[in-house]
């Protein structure tokens, strides 16, 4: 394994990081939106969200990305590998995020809502000041769990030609006939990425605990 | 060459995605004709990234026999060449749906594949051989293969022709051992080196590349199949594009460019047929 090979894996790491970050940044708010639609029992949209979430939770990411990449052109939409990969990540993670958000929304105590209503808070204010801060805190472990899963599913995108950490490592192994060293380097790249996610979670939790302390 | 996962990928696609099945059913509807390619000004070529010595990536740059042929094609083609690099899994599905115009990779011509794809003139000889650990003194010829574990790529053309090896072993009075299928060859070689499998079957070209890179670990065995050729693939019925590519291959064969590249990447040249009808 040469220095250029390590650089190739690091450039794959950049792809992994930015695609994961973009997938999370787009997918998480969409997940919240979907969860709210279900939580508020919006007519028509509610059942649609149920269908969307069930379908996407049942679709393996590799199938989804192949479908997006090869079937969309049939509908007249041509996507580059990166675009198809990102779209699939967002579709996939938004469905799982929706369920995380929804679980916290469902367990939100009703008496607090009634208390807020009784002091004359409107719907939006109630959501922003009472529900959201607590739901964010309750969802955080589940969300971070889903984020780290997303980082680790990115190798699947290689199937349409996205070169992330694992594919870069596979290429090197195929060239040198020594597949193990590049995989160790790849592993060493994933560890800090997931570590950053988990330590951010801890820091956020600590801060939130402080801010709500009496 | 072990074009393995291709039908597997296609099957996954078709099974899981009725929409795509529909699209693939009238597949040539998606594939661009030579005239359409000339009109829009570019040809979309798909190549692989982990199939040394045909196509692989060295220091971040695509290289190997097929990639050099693409470079030659770029110089003479009356249109731009746009190249997409992706794993084998998606390549033939992409050609069948028209996402790519041609797979410039070493797809072994098989009976099953010619039903959904058209193949150009062969680009190499891909007779199947076995490779063994150099240190393994128990294997000296076909007759010693009785009961040995055989590694091969899943869904590959090589897997489909193992019955040939089986009858060769049985002729010597032995019995074919367990067959282990791998998703890709680098893993099979790794297992062979580790002793979890006794021989790995692949084409002579791939195995010569392996043995010359790791002469201390592996040793080439004997042929275990009849004739077998890899070629480039276009969508079924895309006759004009096929003719264009065959003319390109014939021209580069005559000019000496293609034999020189074969010599460079495969260590030898062959007298290859212009077309090949597979028996398997």
Describe the protein.
The complex is a heterodimer of chains A (214) and B (280). Chain A is mostly helical. Chain A is built from 8 helices and no strands. In chain A, helix 3 (61-71) crosses helix 4. Chain A is flat. The model of chain A has no long low-confidence stretch (mean pLDDT 93). Chain B is elongated. Chain B has helices spanning 5-16, 18-25, 34-40, 65-76, 88-97, 157-160, 162-171, 185-194, 204-213, 239-255, 257-266, and strands at residues 42-47, 50-51, 55-58, 61-63, 80-85, 102-108, 117-119, 128-133, 150-153, 179-182, 199-203, 218-223, 230-235. Chain B has a 5-stranded mixed β-sheet, sandwiched between helices. Chain B has a 5-stranded mixed β-sheet with strand order 10-9-11-8-12, with helices on one face. Chain B has 280 residues and is of the alpha/beta class. Classes of the chains: A mainly alpha (214), B alpha/beta (280). The A-B interface holds A 2, 4-5, 7-8, 11, 59, 62-63, 66-67, 69-71, 73-74, 81, 158-161, 163, 167, 170-177, 179-180 and B 9, 12-13, 16-17, 19-20, 23, 30, 49-52, 56-60, 84-87, 89-90, 93-94, 97-99, 184, 186-187, 189-190, 210, 213-214.
Q: Can you lay out the helices and strands and say which pair or pack?
A:
The complex is a heterodimer of chains A (214) and B (280).
Chain A: H1 3-39, H2 45-58, H3 61-71, H4 81-106, H5 110-118, H6 123-153, H7 165-176, H8 180-211
Helix pairs in contact in A: 1-2, 1-4, 1-6, 1-7, 1-8, 2-4, 3-4, 4-6, 5-6, 6-8, 7-8
Chain B: H1 5-16, H2 18-25, H3 34-40, E1 42-47, E2 50-51, E3 55-58, E4 61-63, H4 65-76, E5 80-85, H5 88-97, E6 102-108, E7 117-119, E8 128-133, E9 150-153, H6 157-160, H7 162-171, E10 179-182, H8 185-194, E11 199-203, H9 204-213, E12 218-223, E13 230-235, H10 239-255, H11 257-266
Parallel strand pairs in B: 1-5, 1-6, 9-10, 9-11
Antiparallel strand pairs in B: 2-3, 3-4, 6-13, 7-13, 8-11, 8-12
Helix pairs in contact in B: 1-2, 1-5
């Amino acid at each position: 394994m040469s220095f250029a090979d390590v650089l190739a894996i690091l450039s794959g790491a950049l792809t992994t990081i930015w695609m994961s970050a973009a997938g999370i940044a787009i997918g998480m708010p969409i997940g919240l939106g979907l969860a709210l639609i279900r939580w508020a029992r919006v007519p028509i949209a509610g059942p649609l969200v149920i269908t969307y979430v069930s379908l996407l939770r049942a679709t393996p990411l590799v199938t989804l990305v192949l479908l997006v990449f090869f079937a969309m052109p049939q509908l007249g939409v041509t996507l580059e590998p990166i675009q198809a990969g990102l779209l699939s990540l967002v579709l996939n993670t938004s469905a799982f995020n929706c369920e995380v958000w929804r679980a916290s929304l469902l367990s939100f105590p009703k008496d607090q809502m009634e208390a807020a209503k009784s002091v004359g808070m409107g719907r939006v204010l109630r959501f922003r000041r009472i529900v959201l801060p607590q739901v964010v805190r309750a969802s955080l472990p589940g969300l971070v769990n889903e984020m780290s899963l997303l980082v680790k599913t990115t190798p699947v995108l290689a199937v349409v030609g996205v070169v992330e950490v694992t594919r870069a490592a596979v290429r090197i192994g195929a060239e040198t006939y020594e597949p193990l060293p590049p995989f160790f380097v790849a592993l060493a790249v994933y560890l800090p990425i997931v570590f950053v996610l988990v330590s951010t979670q801890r820091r956020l939790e600590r801060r939130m605990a402080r801010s709500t302390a009496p | 060459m072990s074009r393995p996962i291709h039908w597997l990928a296609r099957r996954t696609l078709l099974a899981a995605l009725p929409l795509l099945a529909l699209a693939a059913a009238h597949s040539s509807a998606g594939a661009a004709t030579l005239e359409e390619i000339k009109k829009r000004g570019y040809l979309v070529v798909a190549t692989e990234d982990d199939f040394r010595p045909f196509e692989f990536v060295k220091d971040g740059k695509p290289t190997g026999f097929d990639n050099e042929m693409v470079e030659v094609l770029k110089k003479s083609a009356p249109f731009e060449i746009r190249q997409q690099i992706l794993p084998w899994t998606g390549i033939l599905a992409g050609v069948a749906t028209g996402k790519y115009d041609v797979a410039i990779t070493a797809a072994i011509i098989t009976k099953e594949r010619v039903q959904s794809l058209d193949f150009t003139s062969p680009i190499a000889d891909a007779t199947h051989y076995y490779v063994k650990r150099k240190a393994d003194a128990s294997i000296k010829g076909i007759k010693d293969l009785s009961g040995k574990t055989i590694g091969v790529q899943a869904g590959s053309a090589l897997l489909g022709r193992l019955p040939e090896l089986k009858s060769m072993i049985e002729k010597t009075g032995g019995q074919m051992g367990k067959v282990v299928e791998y998703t890709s060859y680098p893993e099979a070689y790794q297992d062979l080196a580790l002793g979890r499998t006794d021989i790995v079957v692949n084409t002579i070209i791939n195995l010569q590349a392996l043995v010359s890179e790791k002469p201390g670990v592996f040793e080439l065995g004997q042929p275990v199949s009849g004739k077998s050729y890899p070629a480039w693939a276009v969508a079924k019925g895309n006759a004009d594009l096929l003719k264009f590519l065959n003319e390109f291959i014939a021209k580069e064969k005559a000019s000496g460019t293609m034999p020189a590249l074969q010599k460079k990447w495969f260590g030898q040249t062959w007298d290859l047929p212009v077309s090949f009808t597979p028996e398997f």
